[in-house]
Amino acid sequence: MILELDCGNSLIKWRVIDAEGVRVGGGVASSDESLIGELRGMSRLSLRACRLVSVRSDEETRALMARLKDEFSIDTESAKPAQELAGVRNGYEDYSRLGLDRWLAVVGAFHLAGKACLVIDLGTAITSDFVAADGQHLGGFICPGMPLMRNQLRTHTRRIRYDDQQAEEALRDMSPGRSTVEAVERGCLMMLQGFVKGQVAIAEEYCGPEFEVFLTGGDAGLMRGVHPHVRIDPDLIFIGLAIACPLP
User: Fold this and answer.
1) Which secondary-structure segment (H or E) carries 222?
2) Is the pLDDT assigned to residue 105 strictly greater than 90?
3) Where do the annotations place substrate binding (predicted)?
4) pLDDT in the model for residue 172
5) Residue 48 marked ligand-binding
6) At 215, which helix (H) or strand (E)?
7) Any catalytic annotation for residue 101?
8) How many other CB atoms are found less than 10 A from the CB of residue 20?
9) CA pair distance 133, 39, nearest whole angstrom
10) 102 known member of a binding site
11) Is 135 annotated for ligand binding?
12) Identity of the highest mean pLDDT range in 6-10, 182-186, 195-199
């Protein structure tokens, strides 16, 4: 079994795959300790290696790799920046500055599509990236995601107070809000939908008429129906990670 990790600034997305590449476990951990606990809780766990992508500091990433070595006696392969990988050419002026999670999502999307594509990751922040039919990464955009917009309003507007359950219930329809939670949640979602539609319009200009739209990240499901031809793939980064860090 192989452990795959996507280490963000606040959460760790993980999955375990078997020898055939089939997912046999996975989830989202809030800390290194939580990750170790969730892995210990898996029955018949037999890890032989780990590969990860991390946007954490080098020190934090090394600490996690050492912990995995101590707990499960496995070595960890970490994804590195690259100018070119699997037919995709990094479009940043300084290729090492492109976030590794973005880079791997782009590589994974192009591998699946085999043609021009637009990749939108809807997480704490939202990133979009454009890839031409020949594999040239054309750049992209970054903006706040739902969690950041929601938290900013909660932090800077004293009368906006509600919990996550209320937020979820507020998105059951998109009529004009008749409470603060409805107005905020539906307003933020409309901004996200507008952003996604705008990215599709840009892709039509830069990528030509034939391109694939990929949505990934925790809030990708909220964008269902925003465009008739989208692929929602929560494991897109892991597809790129397997290409960047092949294991025997």
Assistant:
1) none
2) yes
3) 92, 99-102, 180
4) 81
5) no
6) strand 212-216
7) yes
8) 6
9) 40
10) yes
11) no
12) 195-199
Give the Cβ contact number of residue 130 at 10 Å: 23
Render the burial of 37-46: b for 16+ CB within 10 Å, e for the rest. ebbeeeeeee
Residue of 58, 101, 163, 233 marked catalytic: 101
Q: Which CATH architecture has domain 84-145+187-244?
A: 2-Layer Sandwich (3.30)
Between the alpha carbon of residue 92 and those of residues 65, 127, 140, the distances in Å are 28, 14, 9
pLDDT in tens, 112-128: 999 999 999 998 889 99
What distance in Å separates the CA atoms of residue 79 and residue 156, rounded to the nearest whole number? 37
What is the per-residue pLDDT across 195-206, written as a single tens digit (0 to 9) for each?
999 999 999 999
> 7 among the known binding-site residues?
yes
Q: What's the topology of domain 2-78?
A: Nucleotidyltransferase; domain 5 (3.30.420)
What token pair was written down for 221?
């499901």
The rounded distance, in Å, linking the Cα atoms of 197 and 81 is 29
- Alpha carbon distance 74, 47 (integer Å): 7
Domain segments of the chain as ranges: 2-78, 84-145+187-244
Q: Tell me the per-residue pLDDT of 144-168, one tens digit each, with 9 for 90 and over.
A: 988 888 777 766 666 666 667 777 7
